Amino acid sequence: MAWERPPVRRAPEKGGPPQDLEEVLRWISERFRSSPSSSFRLIIIIAVLVLVIVVGFSSYYTVEPEETAVLQRFGKYIGTAGAGPHLKIPFGVDSVTKVITGRVLQREYGYHTVEPGVRSQFVEKGYEAESIMLSGDLNVVNVQWTVQYMIKDPVAYLFKLSGVELTLDDISESVMRRIVGNRYSDEVITVGRASIADQCRAEIQQIMDLYETGLQVVAVKLQNANVPNPVIPAFNEVNEAGQEKERMINDAQQAYNDKIPKAVGQARQTVSQAEGYGLERVNKSEGEAKRFLDILAEYQKAPDVTRRRMYLDSFEAMMGRIDHLYVVDEAQKNILPLLDLNKFKGQSEKAQSSQAQPKGQ
Amino acid sequence: MVPRKAKIAAAVLVVLVVMAASSFFVVSETQQVVITQLGRPVGQPITEAGLHCKVPFIQTANFFEKRIMKWDGRPDQFPTRDKKYIWVDTTARWRIKDSLLFLTRVGTLPKANSLLDGIIDSVVRDHVSDNDLVELVRSEGWEEAKQKLSEAGIPESQMLTSGFETPEQSDHLVKGREKITREMVADASRLIPEFGMELLDIRIKRINYIESVQQSVFNRMISERKRIAAQYRSEGEGERAAILGQMDRELAKLTSEAYKKSQEIRGKADAEATRIYAEAFGKDPEFFSLYKTLELYRNFSNNSSFVLSTDADVFKYLKGSGTVPRK
Fold it and tell me: Which value does ipTM take for this structure?
């Protein structure tokens, strides 16, 4: 793409149309000098033109939809005008004051909206003086609220009281403090909000009517009613402690539920085991008794031989199980010292015997 | 050139305009006017809005505000009767009632404001130091506060303790804020009409503890909350201990009862067994003794050694088979 050089501005030719302000002025003054009578006429024409424009503009005004215009002729109130274009007498005879009557306006106390929006940004710092107040029980509470109002009567608004908004601020703060001062702090920071807002609205309206401010208080809204900021952590601590209490109880209950059903089962186990033992014991004894009685019955038929047989049977059984049997005649008195008893002892007892050896040898 | 006649006409016109400007004046709805002639007031004040006229040059129109105005007090620190140091910020509404009087005795709004400063500040100070703090904070209808509080249904332990030093202060209300402010207005109004002004109200806008007192109130509230928190924790621990104790008790009960029952069952079974044994063995104790002893012998364990005398019955044939037993 080729660059096209911007055209070089040439110096204006003499007599041609004037190109900058300096030249315009020079051109006009030249023309005036040339013919005084024509210049006088020009002045008249310009003056008339200016006059027409001024008259035109000052006899016409428009009122926006949300506004009401209050008309005064020579300072005296003559009426109001609604939205649209209107005519008036110019030259300061009629004066028009537009008042926004169609909007709900808002004043904030104890905080300030920095950036309105879906998530409005607020500042509280610097507004503590507005929000800190005394409750009836002489505690300190922090209340932030807004007053929404409309200018219902623009005539009264303009003519009855000077500084209506500032007066509203004074009354709003005074009324809020009166109401909070008439309640316990506990109520203010908990359930009292709605009734405080209602009462506040009614009282502000009453005073605003008394002074004929022309304001209608639409609503009072409590944004925040709490203890002062330095005390809030301590309040939260109470909530945490409450939670902690619940947790402790739950923990204990858990331990209880963990152990008791198990112990119930174990108790039943113990009882059942005992019952088992009992059954076993009785059955065993019954069995043994039966066996004994049966043997006894047979024994009684031939006691002597049975006795011997039983004796020898058991001896035989015993003999089969023992390692060594020494049969010593009564005449042999000194057999015992000759026996090497160590020989029979188990290997496990060797340590013990070796310990005893130094003494014996 | 401009004709001579036109010049004269122009001069007359200018004079007329100046005359008109000096003899007509506009009074707005918000204003009232006192006409003075060489400094001395003339006639009645004009309160009606509209176009009015006066003698030009020698009479002057003095404009005054007709609307209700606001007076804002300087926040100040006073002690109350019960020696509480507080910040009080008052506000008042007033208007110029007699503009003639106002003109002669006050003159301008700044002067009026400083006059009001002097009068209202001293009245406020008098009344604040003449009343207890509760009287300034509370107002008519305080009696209902307790009712409202009890309707709130807040547990006693959670409640903030009040800042009262004596308990009887809690229900006590002699005057209340409204009555005190009405007295303030009444006192101030004794002086103010002299200046052509009317005082409509005095309101206590803000009333707060001074910084150091406020801090101690905060500290009190904090320590109180901490006390409640500690109580909750302790209650939690107590409940836990109670539940664990109950658990231990039940555990002990369960195991001991089971033990008791098992012992009973075992004992009963043992007794039964004993009875059965006795019944059976009692039929021939001598045989039982033999029977049981021999059983015992059978059960001698392994790896044992025995030294027996030849006298033992079993060995009696070791020495000879034919001998008659000695026994």
Answer: 0.74
